[in-house]
Automatic annotation (TrEMBL):
It comes from Streptomyces albidoflavus. InterPro entries: Fumarylacetoacetase-like_C (IPR011234), Fumarylacetoacetase_C_sf (IPR036663), Rv2993c-like_N (IPR018833). One of its GO terms (molecular function) is acetylpyruvate hydrolase activity. Residues 60-254 form the Fumarylacetoacetase-like C-terminal domain. This is 2-hydroxyhepta-2,4-diene-1,7-dioate isomerase. Residues 1-55 form the Rv2993c-like N-terminal domain. Keywords: Hydrolase, Isomerase, Metal-binding.
Amino acid sequence: MRIARFSIDGNVAFGAVEGDSPDSLVLDIIKGIPFADFELSGTKVPLDKVRLLPPVLPNKVVAIGRNYAEHAKEMGGAVPDVPVTFFKPSTSVIGPGDPIAYPSFTEELHHEAELAVVIGRMCREVPRERARDVILGYTCANDVTARDVQRREDQWARAKGFDSSCPLGPWIETDVEPDDLTIQCTVNGAQRQLGRTSDMVRSVEELIVHITEAMTLLPGDVILTGTPAGVGPLTVGDEVAVSIEGIGTLTNKVIKRG
């Protein structure tokens, strides 16, 4: 099931995305929220009549650095012995079609296409064999990074946590297997990144175990699983798209921060 969060006529709701052709997609409005038992209302609206929002509003986004060997190499380092973990605040989250605002404090903004894991229920100290049980589904993410700031500052809070640095969307896919999916990024239609999730050093299950050893994850929290090689610059006016096999495409445009 593809679960989208959207607004229409000033109201916000979740809906199940139905259809195969981009021109004929409709939303069957969900009664309730997708983090508990819910029913489909049978009330359907065309997707092109609504505004898609970030598919979740996470309490926290837990991100993983250097989880693809080739990306670690292009950044001038080896794969770390333990996962590099950092946070992106909820205020960094935007949805499909929302603008990425180029911050005034950086001159080197980069895209990072990533598979995002959406947590479905509260969990702590999750054993590997139960890791899939706590997942609602998966979505596309762009870990937008102020690369020059990341190099200057030991902590990455400003480099990766600024407003609009975490595009998510277009929806949550609950029925995809995450182990070997094509992930790519294009800028103005030109391919920049192309990889497969099978190239991740540490699997989705391993990351959930590692993170929940330290903290409780809540329904709607998001894990960013790292980016393949090919990260590169964004400029004002660029249109950046992250596509993941079996999930969809997340598109955002870069604007000057006002």
